[in-house]
Write a structure and sequence with these properties.
This protein has 382 residues and is of the alpha+beta class. 64% of the residues lie in helices and 11% in strands. Strands 2-4-5-7-6 form a five-stranded mixed β-sheet, with helices on one face. A two-stranded antiparallel sheet has the order 1-3.
């Protein structure tokens, strides 16, 4: 049962018995002033019994205890009420359709269509129609009006029609609620599939970024014309790249940003000076994906220094901004025009921006020809 169907069923079970109690009690009480004074004691006692049962029934129904006993007791009370029409309906009543007994049992028949299964609702409606007809026959005999009961047949037939229409209404609303739940479940499944697809694409982008930062960068460094990188350096770098590509980064827990940056700085053939503007000189624990994104972005910035800056020194600064962490990588090299990087290339700016955005952070690259390069990385929820 979905949430919409559950809400509809709960609403029906909570409120229909209360509506029934109000209708039955009001009908019984409002009928008393129309009775002759001589009939009031007996009629008043019957009306009081009807009111009392109408108040007891919702509480018993809500408790859910012994539902079959409740059904039997309810039919017994309503049958007895129908058979008392000679005592509760004035002999001068012009039409059976205006008797309070018929109003009460009609609403009860309708209520059963919402609170019980179709077969039970149909049998109860038929039983109440028969009981009301029997009461009309008894009242006609007592009041010495033979054949008057036949005038009740159209009203009793309409009781059955009301019950059937109520069952149809309940069926339509119930099916619509199920359809709404099915549509909601389908939409939720589509959203889950979309999230899975997005996660896969993000994982693929992360893998490609790692490949770009490791093996591709090493191969490019070794293949540049006039490159003076020693073979043993290339072998060592290739080994570290292979370790990075085959290792699985955990996506939960924390990592020490200080340790990650120290290890990353040692991987590059340049002098990387680390400056710490954080409280103490110990660990800097961060959510692991954020620490990994900061580390890899910092590594990409250092590779850019080695390949393009024309200097062998960079400064890495780690500081706080509110509750966040800010890492900057600066060099005094030749710099470049960020806007001039071709769109089809990964580029330093695009690489670090996408990597930081994936974990909810920010990145910016500031550089001008001849003025060096500054890469600023920020993760706001340290």
């Amino acid at each position: 049962m979905g949430p919409t169907e559950r809400e509809f069923t709960g609403f029906v079970r909570r409120h229909v018995p209360r509506f029934r109690a109000v209708i039955v009690a009001s009908s019984a009480l409002l009928a008393l002033p129309a009775l002759p004074v001589a009939d009031l004691p007996v009629a008043g006692a019957i009306a009081a019994a009807a009111v009392g049962w109408s108040l007891l029934h919702p509480a018993w129904f809500a408790s859910g205890r012994r539902p079959r006993t409740l059904l039997a007791a309810d039919l017994a009370v309503l049958t007895a009420l129908c058979l008392t029409q000679a005592l509760t309906v004035p002999a001068t009543q012009p039409s059976h359709g205006s008797t309070w007994i018929l109003v009460a049992v009609s609403f009860v028949a309708v209520a059963y269509q919402f609170t019980h299964r179709p077969l039970t609702g149909a049998l109860v409606a038929a039983h109440l129609a028969a009981a009301d007809l029997a009461g009309a026959v008894v009242a006609a005999a007592v009041h010495d009006r033979p054949g008057a009961w036949a005038a009740a047949l159209p009203n009793i037939g309409w009781l059955l029609v009301q019950a059937a229409m109520s069952r149809g209404l309940h069926t339509v609303v119930h099916r619509r609620s199920r359809a709404a739940d099915a549509a909601a479940a389908e939409a939720a499944a589509a959203r889950r599939s979309l999230r899975v697809a997005e996660a896969r694409r993000a994982a693929e982008r992360t893998h490609l970024a790692t490949l770009h930062d490791t093996a591709c960068a090493t191969l490019l460094m070794a293949s540049l014309p006039g490159a003076s990188v020693r073979p043993e350096v290339v072998r060592a770098q290739a080994g570290r790249d292979l370790d990075r590509l085959t290792a699985e980064e955990r996506s939960a827990g924390q990592a020490d940003l200080r340790e990650e940056l120290i290890r990353e700085a040692a991987r590059h053939p340049l002098r990387a000076e680390l400056r710490w503007h954080v409280h103490g000189q110990g660990r800097v624990p961060l959510w692991r994906p954020a620490a990994v994104a900061l580390r890899d972005s910092c590594g990409e910035a250092l590779r850019n220094v080695v390949r393009h800056a024309g200097v062998d020194r960079a400064v890495i600064t780690v500081g706080r901004r509110g509750d966040g962490v800010v890492v900057t990588v600066e060099d005094g090299g030749r710099g470049f025009d960020v806007a001039a990087v071709p769109g089809h290339k990964q580029g330093l700016a695009r690489s670090v921006v996408e990597r930081m955005r994936a974990v909810g952070g920010h990145a910016a690259v500031v550089s001008r020809p001849g003025e060096g390069t500054r890469v600023r990385l920020e993760w706001p929820r340290a």
